[in-house]
Amino acid sequence: MASNTANERVALIASHLQKVGPSLADKVCIVTGAGSEYGIGRATVYALARRTPKVIYATDLTLDGLQELATDIEQKHPGVKCIARAVDAASTQGVTGIIDEAMKDYGRLDVFFANAGIASGTFLQGEDEESFMRMMRVNALSAFLACKHAGEAMKVTGKGGKDKSGGSIICTASVAGLRSGAGSPEYSASKAAVINLCQTSSFQYAGTDVRVNAILPGLIETGMTKSTFDYARQKGSAHKIGQLNPTRRYGVALEIAAVVSFLASEEASYVNGQAIAVDGGLSASLPVVPGRFH
């Protein structure tokens, strides 16, 4: 696929996703890792807002850029409250604090997108105990805390107009959590843990209508990958990015956000305990020579 054709396709998809209508009326949502300008978390705040929930808590480790995001959301989507908060998503105090605030002010919690995460480009011998545990803390512990505490809050009824238990927890994993080839050993291990946490947690909440799913992005242009994309563009090889998947292009954050917002809504009421790859088909095949075994 030629580069300009791929870019036109991305623009068309983005335009289509902007038209998604409301399906989160009266819901209370929390998003972690929303600070990056090019990130999946920020794109998801916009995608959720188009479904008109009551409130979205947009959080990250610091407030950098979050207040501007909240203001923009409220201007573009009147009736949707967006609240910026600094939250350590890998801290019990941080996670319970933002959940308690939502419960105190709105009486309910319906959606928790555990998206906060970090990545590395190291090889096995370049990693150590400290780097491994930091990766597990930020990526896997944050997902564990979301599953544990958000799920309990989602079971609470009788407040905020919520008359039955239920909610949706979505955690950002990665195709790197499935097998080798998409990330460093420590990063891949942390994302494998996220996948398993979502699967096991879904059964912990059996019968409560609290759903837990993992989203597995493939090669997406985000704040974490932007340097790679910028380097490729400088070299004139940007058209080669993503050519190993059958869609023959990379993805954009809005495409991940669209799936997250679907999982957040009642439209996905029977989707539970799943690891959903959004990777252009990359994880669908064993390695093959391009052009062979169509």
Descriptive keywords:
294 residues; alpha/beta; Rossmann fold; two-stranded parallel sheet; 40% helix; oxidoreductase activity; NAD(P)-binding protein; oxidoreductase
Give an account of the 3D structure.
The chain has 294 residues and is of the alpha/beta class. It has one domain: NAD(P)-binding Rossmann-like Domain (Rossmann fold, 3-Layer(aba) Sandwich), CATH 3.40.50.720. Helix content is 40%, strand content 14%. The chain is built from eight helices and nine strands. It has helices spanning 3-17, 40-49, 66-76, 92-106, 129-154, 185-204, 226-235, 253-264; strands at 28-31, 55-60, 81-86, 111-114, 167-172, 210-217, 220-221, 251-252, 275-278. The strands form two sheets. The protein has a seven-stranded parallel β-sheet, sandwiched between helices. Helix 2 (40-49) crosses helix 8 and helix 5 packs parallel to helix 6 (185-204). The longest helix has 26 residues, at 129-154. The model has no long low-confidence stretch (mean pLDDT 90). Keywords: Oxidoreductase.
- The CATH C-level class name: Alpha Beta
Whole-number total of structural domains: 1
Main sheet? 7 strands, parallel
- Numbering strands along the chain, what is their spatial order in the largest sheet? 3-2-1-4-5-6-9
From the 3D coordinates, which CATH architecture would you assign? 3-Layer(aba) Sandwich
Give the rounded overall mean pLDDT: 90
